[in-house]
Amino acid sequence: MHRLLHDVRRSLASPSRNPRMATVLGRLLAIAFLVCFGTGLFSHYLQEPLPWMVFPTRPVWIYQVSQGLHITAGIVCFPLLLGKLYTVFPELFQSPPVRSVRHFFERASIAVFVAASIVEITIGLLNTFQLYAFFPFPFRQTHFALSFVVIGSLAIHIAIKLPTIAQYWRKRDSYEADGSVVRIAEAPQSGEHDGRDREVVLDSPHTTGVTGRVFAWIDRVPGTPREPREARTSRRGFLAAIGLSAAALVVFTGGQSFRVLDGTNLFAPRKQGVGPNDLPVNRTARAADVLETAVDPGWTLTVSNGSTSRVLSRDELLALPQYDVELPIACVEGWSQSARWRGPRMRDLADLVGAEPGARFRATSLEEGSIYAVMEMGAEYVRDDLTLVALELNGSELDIDHGYPARMIAPARPGVLQTKWLSRLEVIS
Questions:
Q1: DSSP character for 305?
Q2: Cα 310 from Cα 154, distance rounded (Å)
Q3: Whether 28 contacts 247, CB under 8 Å
Q4: Are 400 and 407 spatial neighbours (Cβ–Cβ below 8 Å)?
Q5: For residue range 329-343, what is the model confidence (pLDDT) as tens digits?
Q6: By CB neighbour count within 10 A (0-12 exposed, 13-18 middle, 19+ buried), where does 13 fall?
Q7: Mean pLDDT, the chain, whole residue set
Q8: Which of these, 311, 285, 283, 286, lies nearest to 426 by C-alpha position?
Q9: Which residues contact 306 (CB under 8 A, 6 or more apart)?
């Protein structure tokens, strides 16, 4: 057992475990989480806008790129987070575990950050595959709340570790002439960094206390007094491994968000051009339980503004001026694809019932029991020339899984708000 533990410890030894490497990976991880947080807020408020919010409709691909970055950055967080944990692994076994009030908050903030981050990016990944059965909680609300926990704990940890981050931010300040890493000496009792005295120390946990003595025992070669550990992985090799892992994840999954990577899309759940009307589908008509109501010959679309109302059959919608637009369908799960849509403009339907230029609309689907069966649309979308009640997709009649007999399509909006199987459009007073 002693020899086995000793060999495991030696195989894990690495010159990559130092404050400079932790700082480099930490700032990359912070950037990735900030990208996720910013793009996540954008997506959240598009779906649940505050009363005063107005959103841009140009460029039309703004949500497509935003959500693609959100998912891609979230996936890249996996190798970055694992790499960061690898660099600080020995420090997780400090003895005593808490040396001061500041040290307590340092360890508590990183514990909360790591726990929340692992849950956040894991459920985010499962969401891209729509594996909601694994969630004993509502995904969207939990994902949104955890994002603030992640960013809050990250901010606290950065504030506490700011002297160390500043010391190792630049490469030229981080290494001695012989290539060894400069370390900030610890105050003997408080554990606080004084920022002045520096020393070069080995990459090993403290050797005091029970944990430290256990690791010291493991480090000894069985049958000999002591043998120094041998580093097995160079810093460059370590960074290359993380870089290649992140690149592979982007290359093999990014095709669902960015067409240029479609040829290497091996693991993402959606593929460009695959699906009815040559477009992927998120929610099918069967899953929405509209297989019968959507093909009912008596289907009509009701457009209303208070007491003014128009009831239009599909043939009457086809008789209105038809427009062709090319817009991306971009879903919160990260996949997106541009497509050609055809149908009457939403603004023309609004004019049919005398809606004011600043009127907001509510769209209702034939689907029942879904939080997205009812969608609200601001005036910036209602009056946009590219917003259609789509009847055709990619040159063919709208497939039932894409919302037949009619669906919404508007620029720069999440796919969950592009309501399928429309039954009613009404002005919101």
A1: E
A2: 54
A3: no
A4: no
A5: 999 988 999 999 999
A6: buried
A7: 87
A8: 311
A9: 427, 429
In angstroms, how far is CA 213 from the centroid of its own chain? Answer: 41
Peptide bond into 280 cis (omega under 30): no
Strands (E), 289-386: 301-305, 308-312, 323-330, 336-343, 360-365, 374-377
Q: The tokens of 270 are what? A: 């959606």
Buried b (16+ CB within 10 A) or exposed e, 210-228: ebbeebeebbeeeeeeeee
Cα dist. 337→44, 148, 255, 330, 421 in Å? 21, 30, 10, 7, 20
Give kind and range of the element (H or E) at residue 408. Answer: strand 407-409
Which token pair is 170? Answer: 């630049």
Question: Which one, of 238, 237, 345, 365, lies nearest residue 299 by Cα?
Answer: 365
Report the distance separating Cα 97 and Cα 116, nearest Å.
21
Query: Could you please report the per-residue DSSP string of 150-194?
Result: HHHHHHHHHHHTHHHHHHHSSGGGTB-TTSPBPEEEEPTTT--EE
User: What letter represents residue 211's amino acid?
Assistant: T
Angstrom distances, CA of residue 324 to CA of 185, 401, 418: 68, 20, 17
Residue 188 amino acid letter: P
Residue pLDDT, tens place only, 235-268: 788 889 899 999 999 999 999 988 889 889 988 8
Identify the residue whose tokens are 């649940």.
Answer: 48
From the list 425, 424, 422, 362, the residue with the least C-alpha distance to 398 is 422
